[in-house]
Amino acid sequence: MKENKWKVLLVLFVVFWALWEMYPPGDQSLVKEFNRSATNTDETFQEIVSEAKTLKEKSPEREFQHLMTAIGTNNIAGYFPNIVEKIDVPPDEDPTRHILYELQRQSSGEIKLGLDLQGGVSFLVGVDTNKVAGANSQVLAQAISVLRKRVDSFGVAQPMIQQAGNNQILIQLPGLSQSRKQDARTTIQKAATLKFSLVHPESQKFLKEGIVPPGYVKKKLTRRNDAGEQVVRTYLVKEDAARGLTGKYLSEASVQLDPATGQPSISLEFNSEGADIFEKITEENTGEQLAILLDGELYSAPTIQTVIAGGTAQITGDFTREEASNLASILTNPLEAEVKILQERSVDPTLGQDSIKSGVRACLVGLIVVAIFMLIYYFLAGLVANVALVLNLIFLLGVLASVEATLTLPGIAGIVLTVGMAVDANVLIFERIREELRAGKSIRGAVSAGYDKAFGTIIDANITTLIASIILINLGTGPVKGFGVTLTVGIIASMVTALIVTRIIFDWFLEKGWLTSLRMLHLVGNTKIDFMRWWKPAFAASWGLIILTMVYAGTVRSGNLFGVDFAGGDTVTLDFKQGNKPSVGEIRSGLAEEGFQDVLIQYQTDLSSGEETLKITSEFDTADQVVAGLKSQFPSAGFQLEMTERVGPTVGKQIQRSAILSILLALFGILVYVAFRFEFSFAIGAVIAVLHDVLLTVGLFALAGGEFTAPMVAAILTIIGFSINDTIVIFDRIREDLQLGIRGSFKEVMNGALNRTLARTVITSGTTLLSTLALYIFGGVVIHDFAFTFLLGVLVGTYSSIYTASAIVLWWHKGQRPI
Description:
Helix content is about 60%, strand content about 15%. By secondary structure, the chain is an alpha+beta fold. It has an eight-stranded antiparallel beta sheet with strand order 3-4-2-13-16-17-15-18. α15 runs antiparallel to α16, α15 (about 410-440) runs parallel beside α17 and α18 packs across α23.
């Protein structure tokens, strides 16, 4: 046990670190934080707190505005000297708002929730399509693409961005603090016109004489000196860009930190054409100053010391890291058309509180059911696995909180999959230990050999999934990126808990002499099923079913296959009697009775007037029926139509393209890894099995009458992760048996490997089915389609590991053992 001491200390450190990062998990009261953080208080301060509490009772969700109202014209800087000292308040601005920004940061929860779970802020953006060449649709498409990249810079939140009308875009971002809302407003509206212009060689002389030469303008540059004081210098800058060098030649902008001071700056890289222009400018103007202007504001005026080849430049200034990051994002994604925020509202969660509560309840039920099964089936070993499972969730949430990731429904899907993979890793180890005990080894020898033999399988199974998840992070957007982040962190956490934490516990039990035997139930005995006997008809049947369901989906279901998330639809905005407000769940049930299953329901509050409205998006040309159905189902609510408009999809073409590209590259990465670790035939089998699972699941879902919505993206990604994991476990056993030289034909070796992994397959698929079944039964109507799809995926994935992946390998080698 002595050699495990450092591991124990490391695990304890990580556990305490994760708990520290997670605390507090949810947002705390801003009014309480205001009262608690004050260093000095007086009667005026107590009156402010009392009035803010009174206002909060009427509308709890507007604490920031209530505090601003209660503070009024009072100067609160004296109550918070520690905060004033820490934050950088511009000298010409009231510190009140900046102090409240900092207090809001301090009171915000560490586990960030997405728009679907928490709600957030909605910006209706007007796009000036008249000032840019091209059709309105093209201008709007470009603006949506750029704005999506910009809001993605706020984290892995799942924003909702869709076209609204002919020249408007609706942007919804998950719950942001007031300071982040201001950042969002600035980032969304910024045109980001970058220009490089020469400073007049005699700038200072002419300014002293009051002369402004033709073609030049005065520009002020603000800097801080060594004492921290702001210094303003004025330059004469040429109006035209030097050699026409503007932001259109920019390929990348990133934040760099000065290693000595930690001060952030923005590093620029030009494309090949821009690099040539920049090199000529520096060659022709060595010793002169080059002004870097963003939206007409002078940010930097460095002196050209030498010829600069390679196309790199740098913008320096008094940036905070957050400002530098936002600016880099804007520069990388410049808007061609001018945009303006027309309306700002707070919005309720897109899933509704009813769906969120039922979803959380379903997840807890699923986890409890899996934990009970593991405890009953594996006894003491099951208890160890449950400890590892709890630690796995703590590690996962701690890391997500640390990197400020945003948890959405796709993120929860990633957690469900990582829980299944964590259970699978433990099942692999325990079944290996069982085999070693059956072979006559001592308990200590069986534990050691079980871990050693399961190690390679666990690594291979998790790395293949890890390849896919990392590609999803780097190439995906919105829900795809969120799923990738959660899955990546979860895979690493599950490997650590399964291979290190559980081993430490077993070693400790052995050291204390408490572990003399390991009782385990044995539902699956020593089977000798000839699985590969039916591979040809099974392979033909499943691919035949894929063809039939795809034809059905493309013909019979082509008109109603995609929900409003993918196809867009009609949005109605309604007023109602505030005292008779039905819940989102009641509205969803009521509209379902009227025949509207696929609807997006959201309450919104205008931040300027405080007026609350109901927004519902349904299929095209159904607005009138939806309004009539609401009035019929809820007469006491007094619903009155305020506005109807046609909106584009929330899962836009960019997300769809990035998801497809990410999946294809992930499959290629899996192909390369499996070919390297196994053989090329195994790689082909694994990739085709994944494609089989996705196509058959989608086809069966369409056959069952389902509509594709945003949660379906998460469901398909989850199926891919499960499918490749299951296939690799079986392949690893086939490879091991071949290396051991087990006698028999290749078909007999395959059957033997399939039978020896059957217990693990049944248990892992069974526990995953149990947790998914809990989501299906208790998760509510919104999660229903996701759970149903994943249920299909688990069954199809288990089947394909045998009758697609293994069958292709057997066919590839024509039944002969690989050399």
